[in-house]
Design a protein that fits this description.
- Helix content is about 15%, strand content about 20%.
- It is globular, with a radius of gyration of 20 Å.
- The protein is of the alpha+beta class.
- It has a 6-stranded antiparallel β-barrel.
- It has 10 helices and 19 strands.
C-alpha cells in the first residue's frame, strides 16, 4: 500500500510544535532555503515573481556553500549565518536543508498558479507512540469498493469547504486536496486548512514542498480537462475565491521521521495544518472562512470505526479514470486498518478515488450532530478500491493548537 500520492505533472521542473526559532523575513534567506533545500537551482520559474534569486553552490563533499555577499546582505537584515544554528548548517548537505531548517518558507510568487499551470498539474505519479486508546492492532476485512460519485456543482454551494492544493516538488508541479477548518482563536474568521502530511512534506527522505497554495472550490462548474484545455481563461470559474498561499505549515514529527512512499510508513500520523493568506494584492480583507462562507470543525478523538455509521471522503482524484479537474465523494461505513503495532489504528472505507484525492477531508457527524472533519485521505492500494485515513488524537490536536496559537494575535 502507498500514500494516495500527490499527482505530478511532467512539466516544470515536522511537527513544528517545538519550533521557536525566529521567523526569518529576509528575502535572501528565504531564497537560500527554498532553492538549496529542494536541490534546484534558480530558473525562470524560480524567478517568476521578479524577486532576486540566490545563487548557491555545493562543495565536493556535498556541503552547501553560501556566497559571502549573500551572508553580508543577510546581516543587514539582522541574520548572522555564522551564528545561526550555532554554525551546524555548514555541515548540512542539500538533502539535509529542508529537514533541518525548521522555519517553514513559502514566499508568495504572484500569478504563479494561473489556470493553465493548475490544469497541467494533473498527470498521475507512477506507483512507486499510540495517542488514541482502543483498536490497537485490529484490521477488519478489506471493504468492497465504493464507486466515487461526482459532487454536485457549483462546488461553492455544495461543498464550500473543500478545495485543491497545489505545490512544487523536485519532480514538478503536484496536487492534493484540502479542507477549510474552523480556528478557535478566530471564530468565524478562520484562515486554517487541513490536508495530509505528505502533501506538504516528503517524509523521511525529503523536506518541505514549495509554492504551496490552496484554491477553494477549484473548477467550480466541474468542467473536464478537455473542456478547460484551450478554452478562454475564466479565472473566476477556475478559482472562484482566489488563490490562498500557505504562510505556515505543520505536520507530525512521526511523518517527518517515518513517512515513506510505500508500505504505509508514517500513515497513522499523515496529517498537516496550513495557515493561509490571499495572494498579494488580491484579498478583500476577509478571512478564508468568510470568503468561502463555511469551515468545518475538527473533532479529535472521534469514536473508533465500529461506532461510526458512515464517513464521507471528498477530493479531486487525478489518476485514471479521473482527470483531476472534478470533485468526487465516497460514503461508507468505516472499518479498521492497523499498519504497525503500537501505532494508532486507521479508518478505512471502500472508495475508487485515486491519486490527487490525498489530503481531502473525511467527515462524520460530530458530538453535536453536525458534520465535522475526523480524518483525511492518506493511503490506498495501487489499484483503487479503498482508502485509509488517520485517527486524529493528541499529536494531531497539538499541531492544530500550535498553528491556531501562532496566529491568535494576528
Amino acid at each position: 500500500m502507498r500514500p494516495i500520492r500527490p499527482t505530478i505533472a511532467t512539466r516544470g521542473g515536522r511537527s513544528a510544535r517545538r519550533r521557536t526559532s525566529p521567523v526569518f523575513a529576509a528575502v535572501g534567506l528565504a531564497a537560500v532555503l527554498a532553492l538549496t533545500a529542494t536541490g534546484c537551482g534558480p530558473s525562470e520559474e524560480d524567478n517568476a515573481g521578479g524577486e532576486p534569486s540566490a545563487t548557491t553552490s555545493q562543495a565536493a563533499d556535498g556541503k552547501i556553500v553560501i556566497p559571502e555577499d549573500l551572508k553580508d546582505r543577510l546581516k543587514e537584515h539582522g541574520v548572522d549565518l555564522d551564528k545561526w544554528k550555532d554554525g551546524a548548517w555548514k555541515d548540512w548537505s542539500r538533502d539535509d536543508w529542508l529537514r533541518e531548517a525548521e522555519d517553514y518558507i513559502n514566499p508568495i510568487i504572484e500569478d504563479l498558479w494561473d489556470p493553465d499551470r493548475m490544469r497541467d498539474a494533473e498527470q498521475p505519479d507512477k506507483p512507486v507512540d499510540n495517542d488514541i486508546s482502543g483498536d490497537e492492532g485490529v484490521t477488519d476485512p478489506t471493504p468492497a469498493p465504493v464507486q466515487a460519485q461526482p459532487v454536485k456543482t457549483p462546488y461553492t454551494t455544495s461543498t464550500p469547504e473543500a478545495g485543491k492544493l497545489f505545490f512544487d516538488g523536485p519532480q514538478g508541479s503536484m496536487v492534493c486536496s484540502a479542507t477549510v477548518i474552523k480556528d478557535p482563536a478566530h471564530s468565524g474568521k478562520s484562515n486554517m486548512v487541513w490536508t495530509a502530511g505528505h502533501c506538504v512534506h516528503a517524509g523521511k527522505k525529503g523536506g518541505w514542498y514549495r509554492n504551496i497554495a490552496f484554491v477553494p472550490s477549484y473548477n467550480d462548474t466541474g468542467k473536464s480537462a478537455k473542456e478547460l484545455d484551450g478554452a478562454p481563461k475564466n479565472e473566476k470559474e477556475i478559482m472562484p475565491h482566489g488563490v490562498w498561499w500557505g504562510d505556515w505549515a505543520q505536520t507530525s514529527e512521526q511523518w517527518i521521521a517515518q513517512g515513506g512512499p510505500t508500505g504505509g510508513e508514517g500513515a497513522p500520523y499523515d496529517y498537516a495544518v496550513l495557515h493561509v493568506t490571499p495572494e498579494k494584492g488580491k484579498g478583500n480583507g476577509k478571512s478564508l472562512e468568510e470568503t468561502v462562507g463555511s469551515a468545518l470543525p475538527v473533532e479529535f478523538n472521534a469514536p473508533a470505526a465500529p461506532e461510526i455509521p458512515s464517513m464521507t471522503a471528498t477530493g479531486y482524484p487525478a489518476a485514471p479514470p479521473f482527470d483531476g479537474q472534478k470533485q468526487y465523494q465516497c460514503a461508507d461505513k468505516p472499518g479498521r486498518l492497523s499498519i504497525k503495532a503500537g501505532d494508532p489504528t486507521m479508518y478505512r472505507i471502500g472508495c475508487t478515488m485515486t491519486g490527487g484525492s490525498s489530503g481531502g477531508g473525511w467527515t462524520a457527524l460530530g458530538q453535536d450532530g453536525k458534520p465535522a472533519l475526523v480524518s483525511n485521505t492518506s493511503i490506498g492500494p495501487v489499484t483503487a478500491g479503498w482508502l485509509a485515513g488517520p485517527r486524529l488524537g493528541t499529536e494531531a490536536k497539538g499541531i492544530f493548537d500550535s498553528v491556531s496559537g501562532k496566529f491568535a494575535n494576528q
